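User: Structure please.
Assistant: Input sequence and predicted structure:
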Amino acid sequence: MRITRTVAGRSRRTAVIATTGLTAAALLLTGCSDSGSETDEADADGNITLTVADFGQFGYKEAGLFEKYHELHPNITVKENVTADEQVYYPKFLQQLNTGSGLADVQGIEVGRAKELVDTKADAFVDLAKVIDTDQWVNWKALQATTDEGKVIGAGTDIGPMSICYRRDLFEQAGLPTDREEVAAKYAGGWEDYLKLGEAYKAKAPKGTFFMDSASAMYNGVVSSDSEQYYSKDGKAIYKESSGVQAGWKLASEAVDKKLTQGLAQFSPPWQAALRKGSIATVACPAWMAAQISTYSGDEFKGKWDIARTPGETAANWGGSFLSVPAKGKHVKEAGELVKWLTAPEQQAAVFKAVGVFPSNKGAYELPDVKNAKLPYFNNAPIGEIYAEEAQIIPAAVLGPKDGVIKDTIGTQINNMEQRGTDPDKAWDDATEAIDKVIG
């Protein structure tokens, strides 16, 4: 089954991670979906029900955490209300915040929504800085849900540190190194070196194969590894001047011009078919991408894929969520304690083992289920080690209310360069015109 969390056109899928012989596999969830609702008051014996409203898959049910919490707190039963699509979940959540009615005790927040809620709805949430120790989280994650005054509206759940997934067999046929450390060394200088590796691949590439799936995916990796992205600290949209955007656009245009990309929109049917056919040599790979690759590449390519660190001295992040406690919930104190427990290292490690979403709590990185995690499908790549290192060198970047719109619009125009042969200057003009109409 596939897990999908969608926000502003961004889809997030997850993998099952195992330390002992299980392959990565997509968990194709259809979502079960009650909407969040207010809980009942405690009964005569002091028993209460806490509701958790979230979207896609947070992994708590799969890891058995709600049952475990009930064992630790016999008077508390936790009910999870899941909405499959975040784009359905979020408008309803905003309406509930505005009216103060229908809220669950605990509500999930997608990272793409965090900035808007921090700026406009912070008063609607409990300050979790009084409940959790934010120093336990990678610093950039904690900052995403923190106001300028230091109020924390969400405790970090998962993150999406990026790597490069690559086909060992195709690299070997093209005369390139196959060892993951040697591959990473080839592009240690940054994404420019990644394109140089692509040129070397293209020179001897097996017929019908391409170095990368999508220049827009690489663009996202470039921008996400820069501290300057779409907005400035004062809330101004700076995407036209941003060093990250400029670097990403230049490299994406170069990749298209040199025909290093197959020009496939990630997650589309043609992209899935290309993985099945085996025509893609590398993919810019957030932690959760492994499930997609293993699912669509299938048994034929098991062990032929591998994972190497991301290009350059900084890493990139794609995806992630938070748990929040609405201030008008009926069981605020108990909800805060549940959030603290669910986002503690041991529980984040359990979720990682169950569904593959990578922890944001640094304490989980030293626990065996994370530290020793390997993916047999990817030649036993030590993903726990790789992603823990990447997570801690991701730069703290300013989030903006329309990050998703800007990123997706630019991505569409990169796809137009790939698929329609649109001139880069025209593609950029088309992108900026469309963005400015939305953001003003």
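Residues 195 and 255 are 7 Å apart (CA to CA).
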